[in-house]
Structure formats: structure tokens, C-alpha cells
Amino acid sequence: DGRDAGGNYVLELQPRRSTAFINKIFMVVRLESVLNFAKNRANFMFTATRNELLFPVLSTTVIDHQGNTTTMEFTNIKVNSRLSSSFFNFMIPPGAQVVRPPTAAAPGR
Q1: Nearest-CA neighbor of 29 among 52, 51, 3?
Q2: Closest by alpha carbon to 66, among 21, 13, 25?
Q3: 23 near 64, Cβ under 8 Å?
Q4: For residue 38, what is the enclosing H or E element?
Q5: At CA 70, angle to CA 26 and CA 67, rounded to 5?
Q6: What are the beta bridge partners of residue 78?
Q7: CB-count exposure of residue 10 (10 Å: 0-12, 13-18, 19+)
Q8: pLDDT tens per residue, the chain (109 residues)?
Q9: CA 38 to CA 56: how far, in whole Å?
């Protein structure tokens, strides 16, 4: 019926193209968020508080073609928590090739 035991919505997703690793994915989305969105659809994005979870994914379950499942449950979800850029430090590994997208030609060239 599209709901879990807690009344949260369960979405069943199937890839458009077959993949070797994914047959289908189930995502559980918090019920209150869906109801709040439906009630205030027109101005929801503008009235939501910073800590309110718009459509938090509570869990995902991936099922492969052999029937194996991998479930991830998410807790203490925070949206747009404004992490400092100092938390991230990407260094290109030695010997890695950096590929950049082509730049668009200026109009008239």
C-alpha cells in the first residue's frame, strides 16, 4: 500500500535501463514532510525553517538481480547545515589524470 509500519511513504524505484547491480530500490520518506508539502505546496520552499527536513530519506534498500538486499538507515539528518569548507580537502592522487569539461566557445567564433 506504499507505507511502512510507521506510516511513512515507501517509494519503489526501478532503473530505466537494466544494470548489473540494481534490480530495484525502495526509499522510505518521512510522512510528516510529505503532508506538509502537500498542504503548503505553493510556498513550501519559502516557509520551511532551516532545520525542517523537506523530504528526508529515512532509509534505502537496494535489491540486486540475485535477490540480495542492502539497506541503509539514516538518523540525525540535517539539511543545509552549512559545513565549513575546512572540512573538505580534496587532493589529486599522484598519477591521476585530471579531465576537465571543454569550455564553450564564445558566440560568433
Answers
A1: 3
A2: 21
A3: yes
A4: helix 31-39
A5: 80
A6: none
A7: middle
A8: 789 999 999 999 999 987 888 999 999 998 888 787 777 766 655 544 544 546 678 999 999 999 999 999 998 877 667 778 888 888 899 999 988 888 766 565 5
A9: 15
Nearest CA-CA partner of 38 in 51, 50, 57, 55: 55
Indicate whether this model's pTM tops 0.70. no
Sign of the alpha-carbon dihedral angle for 61, 64, 69, 70: negative
Cell of 58: 529515512
94 Cβ contact partners less than 8 Å away, ≥ 6 residues apart: none
